[in-house]
Amino acid sequence: MLDALRPSWVIIEREVRDQFRDWRIIFPIIGLTVVFPFIMNWTAKQMLDFTSEYGASVIADRLVPFLLMVVGFFPISVSLVIALESFVGEKERSSIEPLLNTPLKDWQLYLGKLVASTVPPLVSSYLGMTVYLSGLAIRGIALPDPAIMIQVVLLTTVQAVMMVAGAVVVSTQATSVRAANLLASFIIIPVACLVQWEALVMFWGNLSTLWWVLVGLVVLTALLVRVGLAHFQREELLGREIDVLKFRWAWSVFCQAFTGGARSLPEWYRQVISSTLRRLALPAGIAAALALVGFMVGMQLVERYPLISEGLDLSQAGGNLNQLLEIYPLLGAASAFGILWQNLRVLLLALVMGIFTFGVLGVLPLFATMGVAGFLSAALVGSGLSIWSMAALLLPHGLLEIPAAVLATAAVLEAGAILATPTPGKTIGEVWISTVADWAKIMLGLVLPMLVVASLIEVFITPHIALMLFGG
Amino acid sequence: MIVAQGLTKYFDTFLAVDHVDLQVPQGEVLVLLGKNGAGKTTTVRMLTSILRPSNGWAKVAGYDVVEQADQVRASVGVLTEHHGLYGRMTSEEYLQFFGSLYRLPRSESARRAKPLLELFGLDEARKKRLGEYSKGMRQKLALVRALMHDPPVLLLDEPTSAMDPESARTVRDAIARLRGQGRTILLCTHNLAEGEELADRVAIIQAGRILIHGAVEDVKRKLLGPVIYEARFAQAVTQAPAGLPAGVSFIEARGDALIFQVENPTEQNPDLLQSLMSQGLRVIAFQEVSRSLEQAFLEAVRNHGEVQNA
Fold first, then answer.
1. Could you give the strand order of the β-sheet that contains B184-188, starting from the edge strand earlier in sequence?
2. A285 and A160 belong to one structural domain
3. What ipTM was assigned to the predicted interfaces of this complex?
4. Which of chain B's ends, N or C, has fewer CB atoms near its CB within 10 Å?
5. What is the homologous superfamily of the domain B2-221 according to CATH?
6. Using CB atoms, which residue from A21, A98, A239 is nearest to B11?
7. What is the pLDDT of residues B146-168, one digit of tens each?
């Protein structure tokens, strides 16, 4: 193993040495390590003095660790610049080709560059935080809680790796530093928002939330590293023209993936949809399990939040339902369309959330919806409705709606997994278009028809079952 | 040493290399000629296992470029079109770095670098930052880099393009010496005189397809027809001599010279000379009219254009 890491070490050594010969990197790092922490010390002292005049010591208490986070974050922001220069700059100057001609493996080069781009800014960040904390101790200001300090150090570390890993993904879509800098806003803006949000959580004083943020960032970073590794390939680094938007090519890739070469609708269902379904077996299993867990979590929450079940009187339900139907003519095509549109919106949201988080957040809409269904079911059963009646209300449309949602979520999970998997001979763009086409296949071929039928059942059959059950 | 069969490369729908067949035995130099964008660099990148062929296969130094990519890269020295040196390094550091990537110990890298730097006249500049190097020096250093791991196969893209005549001569001599040591060399160049000087074989590539591939003289003969000879006489001649041997055709008269095309010089030249002298013509010189690789290349490219237009 160590022998396999040796080439990466050679890359790290060269790159770090190169960074320390560039005054444009050295000066900001020295400034942020040595000068900036003193400014933050001074700021902390001023703020503490100011807030103590008004007895707002709680603000001062939260400000000290916040400034620690700022001191730690500024130097790691340099890692993004170093990474873009390291990955895209080499491409632009063609100095990467001699490297690619050596027996160096793609992952060894990737790892070398990843570490070389991350470690110097991180060391600078740690030193800066040490200087800041030392300054606090010298000025007699109480140090933050050790747990917060550990959180800040860990968050800083993960954020540095995340930005560099994100920079690699960006680099695969750029052949010039200029193009990469434009794309870097996809990293800078979310990270800036994240830091602001972390600051809010810190001022709020909710440490457990910060631990969860840390866990989420570790998962996202791991996925970004995986995606970077999957697409940091010799073929992609040299073989393609990727700066030009080619609509015709994109459309042909989409059509090819969507039709799968089928010449008729029956053939498309028989060959393309069935093979896609076979591929979706595992993600569909995962989505179904998550739906079940969501339902059970929802049921559990009734005990903690018994708001509905306490006030619910089912004996009045039939009459109320009749009144409702008189006021709002719900049993019509417009309602069916409304339900369909709502379901489609949720599944589109799952796609959007999933495509930018490699499928991870794409499961949230299904999980949350099933949670709500579980909560309502438990609440109704808790109020005296029998399980059979509950099933009669849910299942007629649910038998189609839930599998449709599971399938759509599975398609999003699959898309995320494919994006993070090596695909020799294909660019990220090509893979992305193919996965969207796969998702579209499932949506148009199965999910949409199932949702249409489900919405019709939900409007024209389920309310009648409800009226029968509640005696309306 | 280098064998390619049906090597094809698509970039999306663009066909960059179309069923290329190549064969370069050990110790020979193949010169790959072609206009810009003809597919030379893509072919070289497939042979160095950087690009994966869409179709076909190739073996370099006995290794498959797809299945044994690491071994291929370890056996090949590549001089790329853009040298891509690191401006803040010295040549010593640079060669140490690449030596390490080829798993050479530091002492071995230094031992190998010294004579190579001396050979290419870079020894005195070894402590200089590469950013201060001239274009020619950079090109020579890139060539040294390609030779550091002592590869049996060399793929050289425009090795003398930025050099002054003296440096270019040094490099050409070095290439000839490397061939003499039994190395197999694929050379891409636009300098046709250089190609002709160094080539054992030549391949002309156009729009991704090999138009012709073979020994230099064979390629010239195929493209420009049989060898041409000029006979000079003590007197002026104005018309074609009678009774020329079979396989010899008269082309033109130029003052005191007659130009012939000879199918098989070994057999027909003695008969031709005898025939001329028997007709009372006093031959004072008889020599082959040299035809350059450049003529052959232009002919190949023109013919290809005509075929395409047709």
1. B76-79, B153-157, B184-188, B29-34, B201-206, B209-215
2. no
3. 0.83
4. C
5. P-loop containing nucleotide triphosphate hydrolases (3.40.50.300)
6. A239
7. 999 999 999 999 888 878 888 88
